[in-house]
Structure formats: structure tokens, C-alpha cells
Write a structure and sequence with these properties.
428 residues, alpha+beta, Beta-lactamase, Transcription Regulator spoIIAA, 2 domains, five-stranded mixed β-sheet, elongated, binds glutamic acid
Length: 428
């Protein structure tokens, strides 16, 4: 069978409706972007990337989504204390390019607005912009799992219109929080913003932050403490002057960029990215925002709605030549997605498949609905699916009773026929 996650992402894009807003025009090259491009990607912590949309392979510039990553590298290079002396971590409520410095300390308010991001760029080790940018691109590439490069046309274009960022850099220097040459720093910062990515790259980079700084190949790219600092600042300051509204309504720490990219990190679960160039009044992708709102709604991904960390194992074994999928533990979206992948690996055919839910401890609505859909698709593939569900995990998947914990009985809804145990299911 084909796992339904990719289909879900396609349907999500189809359901978005009319777009609104305008493409960024203050960078001449971005004003020429095709405003209708659209893509979304989701990356799991173990390296699975689901992607949908006609712009799935399109490259666009990372722009401000570079800010959390460069901030991370600055902390890794200098230590958190030194970075905090230069850049505060307070949400400013200001627009991205506001001249926003603390009146007492002169520090930029946070590293997610341009003033703080320019200061963060300057804190990355390297003698000049070129040296810093080389390290920055190497670092982003490790996170993305492939070699990234710079879109030179966008870089030239943005640098030719970088007066405001130049003003910010001179301003920061005047109050003593920038130790590098301002013009060279803006050149480096602008190159950092011009790194070219796809939604899959961004989703994978986000998944590394979601995994506490570790890539799917178990490369610990960021110390967990640095990773946590970056995510905290993204959560409070990542969405410009709509950061508060975003955290409350979407609940996924995120960062947007003026080229239309939007990256979200759900700690311990997934990395998500969207691309659609039209921006709202805050500079965030209009349809990107809607994609995140929908995902939060459909998959229960709000940070503050997360329950305790879940453990589950899905194991396939054969009994008398019949495949038995034994599912154990707590089921939420992430665990259910794994189970789906196990189902997806089952070759189509008429052989019976036993799904044993006897040792599931806890399951939320989303996980139960996903399991039902997986079972439906195994049947469409021709399998005789035999369910062992003595306490009714699947019981009320369609009536939505929230999270079921073992010992509670589900009420109502569609209850698939269940065998009492694996032995009887195997006998059929
Ligand atoms: N390179 C852009 C700038 O500094 C980034 C802004 C953004 O993506 O919000 O103006």
C-alpha cells in the first residue's frame, strides 16, 4: 500500500482556496518570483520526508529562515553567555527590519529580527564575511543532508537594495555591540539569506531541530542546550510581529522568510516546511500560514497540546506463514505514522495480515483514525486483515473521544470485528 501521509499533504494543498497578499518587492529579484508556486514537506526524525505540491522541487532563497540556524552556530562558536551579551531574547513585536535596540543595553531585542540576525552573523567564527559564510553554508548543508549553494542573482539583487540593513549594522556598531566591519557583515548576512533551498531541505533542517540537534544519521550537529535555546527563541520571536498570535493559534515554533518559505519545528515529533511566495502584512507566507493552521487542526500538532513523550514499538513477525503486526505502547501521530510505514512495506496480495493491538496502552483520535485508514488500505491491496483489538482501541475513532487509555472502554462509532487473540486470528 502507499502510506496516506503524502496523499493527505496533496489534499491539504488542494483545499487551501484563494491566495492573498503580495510577493516581497523590496528585493528586486524576489519581486519577479512566480506568486502561485506551492509546496509542503514534512520530515520525521528518522529521516522520512513527505513532500507535495507542484513546487516540490523548486529552489527558493532561505532568507530569514537562516536566522535561527546562524544564531545556533554563533552560540556553538562563542558560548551562550557571550551571545547574550550582544543579542537579547525578548520578543519585540516589531517588524523584521525595525531599528529595534534595547535603550539601556543597546542590544538588538532578539536574533530573529534583522538587527539581531546581523549581530548573530558577526558572532560566527571567521575573519571576514567570506570565511563566515563558508562555515554557515557548511553548517546548513549538514542539517539539510545535502550540499547547499547560494543564489548569486538574489544575493546581488538584495545587496544592491540593502540600505536599511546597512543602517542597522552601523547603528549596532555605534552602540558597541558589533565587533566587525558593518558593510562586510551585511554582505555576509545577505549571502546567508541567499542560500537556496527546497521545502524538503527546510523540513529536514527543521527535523534536526525537532530531534534535539541530531540528524537522522545520528550526527549531533547541535548540542541539545543550544538547540533548546534556538527553539525557545523561535517560539517567542520567530514570526515577527505576529509571533504571539502564531504561537497561540498554530502552536508550532516557526520561522518565515520573505521569499515565501515557512519552517516549523515540533520538538520530538516532526519538521514541517511550506513554500508559497505571497506574504501577509507581517511578511509571512499567506498560504504557508494556512497550511500550518490546517495541519495543527488535522493532526493535533500544537506544542501546548503535546502529551508526555510517547513510546511505542511496532513489530512484524510471522506465525504459520501469516504476517502479524504487533503494536505496543502509546500511539500518537508519530507512532501511527511508523505503523503505517510497516503496513506500507507489506507486499500487496491476498495473504492474511493480523494487526495485534492488544498491547497498545494509550491512543489518541488521530492515531486511531490513521490506523483505521491503514487497515482500509491493506484491505484495498487485497489482504484479509484480521484485527486483534480486545479492549477496543479502534472503537470510537470516528466519534472522536479524545485520548483513550487502556482500561477505558470506547463508546459508539464504527467498531471493527475483533479476534480475542493472535492465535485465533491466525486460525481465521
Ligand atoms: N534578507 C532579508 C532582509 O534582511 C530577510 C528578511 C526576511 O526574510 O524576513 O531583509
Amino acid at each position: 500500500m502507499q502510506t496516506p501521509i503524502a496523499d493527505y499533504l496533496e489534499l491539504l494543498l488542494e483545499s487551501l482556496g484563494e491566495d492573498g497578499g503580495e510577493v516581497a518587492s523590496y528585493i528586486p529579484e524576489l519581486a519577479n518570483a512566480d506568486p502561485d508556486r506551492l509546496a509542503v514537506a514534512m520530515a520525521t526524525l528518522d529521516g522520512e520526508v513527505y513532500v507535495a505540491g507542484e513546487a516540490a522541487d523548486a529552489e527558493f532563497t532561505i532568507q530569514s529562515i537562516s536566522k535561527p540556524f546562524t544564531y545556533a552556530l554563533a552560540i556553538a562558536d562563542q558560548g551562550l553567555g557571550a551571545v547574550l551579551e550582544h543579542i537579547d531574547v525578548e520578543p519585540s513585536g516589531d517588524a523584521f527590519n525595525e531599528i529595534s535596540l534595547d535603550p539601556d543595553t543597546g542590544r538588538p531585542r532578539n536574533p530573529m529580527i534583522n538587527a539581531g540576525a546581523i549581530a548573530a552573523h558577526a558572532l560566527v567564527h571567521g575573519d571576514d564575511a567570506d570565511a563566515r559564510v563558508e562555515r554557515i553554508v557548511d553548517f546548513y548543508s549538514r542539517l539539510a543532508g545535502r550540499r547547499l549553494s547560494i543564489a548569486e542573482d538574489v544575493f546581488e539583487s538584495e545587496l544592491s537594495a540593502a540600505d536599511r540593513n546597512m543602517a542597522l549594522a552601523y547603528m549596532i556598531r555605534s552602540v558597541g555591540t558589533l565587533d566587525c566591519d558593518p558593510a562586510d557583515t551585511v554582505r555576509g548576512y545577505t549571502r546567508q539569506c541567499s542560500v537556496s533551498v527546497t521545502v524538503s531541505d527546510l523540513a529536514r533542517m527543521a527535523s534536526v531541530l525537532a530531534a534535539g540537534g541530531r540528524t537522522p544519521d545520528r550526527d549531533q550537529v547541535l548540542e541539545p542546550a543550544v538547540n533548546r535555546q534556538v527553539l525557545s527563541v523561535m517560539a517567542t520571536c520567530g514570526m515577527y510581529n505576529s509571533a504571539g498570535d502564531w504561537l497561540a493559534s498554530v502552536g508550532i515554533p516557526a520561522k518565515s522568510g520573505v521569499a515565501g518559505g515557512l519552517m516549523g519545528v515540533l520538538p520530538g515529533q516532526v519538521g514541517i516546511a511550506a513554500f508559497s511566495p505571497r506574504l501577509d502584512a507581517h511578511g509571512n507566507s499567506t498560504r504557508g500560514r494556512r497550511i500550518f493552521e490546517r495541519m495543527n487542526h488535522d493532526m493535533g500538532l500544537h506544542l501546548m497540546a503535546s502529551t508526555e513523550s510517547a513510546h511505542s514499538v511496532s513489530r512484524r513477525r510471522e506465525v504459520d506463514g501469516i504476517a502479524v503486526h504487533e503494536i505496543v505502547g502509546d500511539l500518537h501521530f508519530v507512532e501511527a505514522e511508523r505503523v503505517l510505514r510497516e503496513f506500507a512495506a507489506e507486499p500487496a496480495g491476498e495473504t492474511p495480515v493480523v494487526v495485534d493491538l492488544d498491547r497498545v496502552h494509550r491512543a489518541n483520535d488521530i492515531a486511531r483514525r490513521i490506523l483505521l485508514e491503514g487497515i482500509r488500505r491493506l484491505r484495498l491491496d487485497g489482504h484479509d486483515v484480521r484485527i486483534v483489538d480486545p479492549w477496543g482501541v479502534l472503537g470510537s475513532a470516528e466519534t472522536g473521544t479524545g485520548e483513550l487509555v487502556r482500561g477505558e472502554q470506547a463508546h459508539g462509532g464504527y467498531v471493527p470485528a475483533s479476534f480475542p487473540d493472535v492465535a485465533s486470528a491466525v486460525r481465521g
